[in-house]
Structure formats: structure tokens, C-alpha cells
Amino acid sequence: MNFQALPKIDLHCHLDGSVRPETIIELANAQGIKLASQDVDVIRDLMIAPETCQNLIEYLQRFELPLSVMQTKDALERIAFEVYEDAALENVKYMEVRYAPLLHIDKGLSLDDIIGSVVAGMKRAEQVHGIKGNLVLSIMRHMPTDRIKEVLDAGSAFLGTGVAAFDLAGGEELGFCEKFIPFAAYARDKGYHVTIHAGEQGEGQNVFDAISMLNAERVGHGIHIATHQLAYDLVLRENVALETCPSSNVQTKAVQSLATHPVESFRQQGVPVTINTDNRTVSNTTMTKEVQKVIEQFGLSQQDYMGIYRTSVNAAFVDSATRDYLLSFA
């Protein structure tokens, strides 16, 4: 099977976790930011999380370096373009990239500038490479909630022209959803789709809450419905697609190994599963690698994979014309 040639959809990719190490060096030098080294291999090692982290917290520490250079309009536009370019070159047909605008205000950028710059980079990649894309605006669960509506208001100007959805991300605590009920409702009223990180770190109840309290249409990761029957039943009944990220889940100890990842058992049971990168740089991966790992680990046929591709297209936050276009590759 030619894994590179397979059409691919990536619904769960973080902008700040997918920056080219070479770009970090160039941007840091241009911005007067001192780096530990000018050696790209050293910088790459600082950006890639260990294959087995102690926990999610250790994994998330790898975002500090890229975020330090992602505080200007030019940097955001360039990085967005490059992430979409890298995906397009491995035959990713459509990609949703997520990022938290409030992590890019350190040097005074407005939310309009931040969102507009990332949209511009994505749009340039669409023009140059033919890839289709949308953006997901993430809110970090550990940050104060006082500016969430401001982010949603700024993003609403780009709904339908680059921005598609609202997300909650960051460290996962049991019961986090209740606090965000009014904000998810506000986002839906504005016209945002909703996808929520939940069930990544052992808390299946959070998946149940994300769907029942926040009306999540998709769930980021969601793998721990495997140990929570009510959440599992709800996902199945409501046909809520799970954005699984196999390599990342192994790294963060969400699962012990790829062999024990529930993606294939879910697929066989009719749970809508998708395969995604999570963070191309931090997890040292690509969509080609993720697809190949899952196909080889679980002995999937090309027909099996194309079923996952179609699930991804049907779960994508796109209009009917784009959906039909993406399904044409299946």
C-alpha cells in the first residue's frame, strides 16, 4: 500500500505544536529572541516530546519555544502557511488546524490581527497547494474566562471564510465542562461548530459531559469512553466522531502502547473514528505516519482505511460542496 498516496483528512492538528524547527530559528533570530542553539537538530530535540512522557504536562512543555516566536502577524501567517503546505505535500486533502488566540497576545497583537493572520496563511496555502482548510479557535481550560466571548466575537467575522469551530484544550480535569456551558452556548449562537478535548486522560465522564452539556459535535481524543459505558453509548447513539491521535496518545501515556489503542476496536463496533496528527512536530509525526501505523498495527485493508477517510469527511466542519469534493477521492 502506498501510504503517501492515500488521500488524508486531519481534523485535529495544533498550530503551535506543528512548527518547523528551521522556522523557529529564523523567526527567533529576526525577532531578537535568544535560543539555546542555532543547530536545527538541537532545536528539533527541544521541540519533540519524548516517546514516552511521564504525563500530559511534560508533553505540553514542548509548546513554550514555538509560542515565544508566534507573537507577530508575519510569524503567524508564515507558520500557518507552512503547516498547511507540509500537509498538502503528503496528500492531505483537508485539514482543520486549531490554536488559542489568547496565547499570541504577549506583544500586543489584537485578536483580529491574530485570527486574520492565521486565516491569511491558510488561504495562501489553499491557493498554492490546492489543500482545503478551516480553523478551530481553542480556549485553554486553565486560563481566566473573562476574554472568551471577546475571542468568539473576533472570530465570528471569519466564520465561513476560514474559521469553523470552538474548542476547549489544555490539561484535563474531571468535571471541567460545567464551567464552560455558557461559552459553548454563546459560540453555537454565533454559528460556531463545537469540538471539545475530552476523554484523553482517563476521564470518560468528560466525554459524556462535553456532548450532553456543551453539545460537542466531535470530541478530541475521546478514547476513554472505553471505560465509561454511558459515554460510549452516547457517542454511538449521537454518532459523535472521535478525533483520535495515536502517536500522541502513546506519548502522553493516555494509552500504554499503540497495540492497546482502542481506535480499531471502536471502528469495528461502529464508533465514528478519525486518525489525526495532534502535533506534527511535538509528536514527530505526519498524517502518512499516523495512517501507516494504524493500518500496519491492526492489519487494515485499503478499503478499511477508506472507510475511516469517509468518516473523517463526514465529520469535517465543511459545506456540502466541499464535502462532495472530498468524497470524490474516496
From TrEMBL:
Family annotation (SUPFAM superfamilies): Metallo-dependent hydrolases
EC numbers for this chain: 3.5.4.4
Purpose of the protein: Catalyzes the hydrolytic deamination of adenosine and 2-deoxyadenosine.
Protein name per the record: Adenosine deaminase
Site (Important for catalytic activity): 221
Keyword annotations of the record: Hydrolase, Metal-binding, Nucleotide metabolism, Zinc
Binding annotation for substrate: 14, 16, 170
Catalysed reactions listed for this entry: adenosine + H2O + H(+) = inosine + NH4(+); 2'-deoxyadenosine + H2O + H(+) = 2'-deoxyinosine + NH4(+)
Signal peptide: none
Any GO BP annotation: inosine biosynthetic process
Keyword field contains Hydrolase: yes
Binding-site residues, Zn(2+): 12, 14, 197, 278
Organism field: Vibrio gelatinilyticus
Cofactor binding annotation: Binds 1 zinc ion per subunit.
Domain Adenosine deaminase: 7-328
Family: Belongs to the metallo-dependent hydrolases superfamily. Adenosine and AMP deaminases family. Adenosine deaminase subfamily.
Named cofactor requirement(s): Zn(2+)
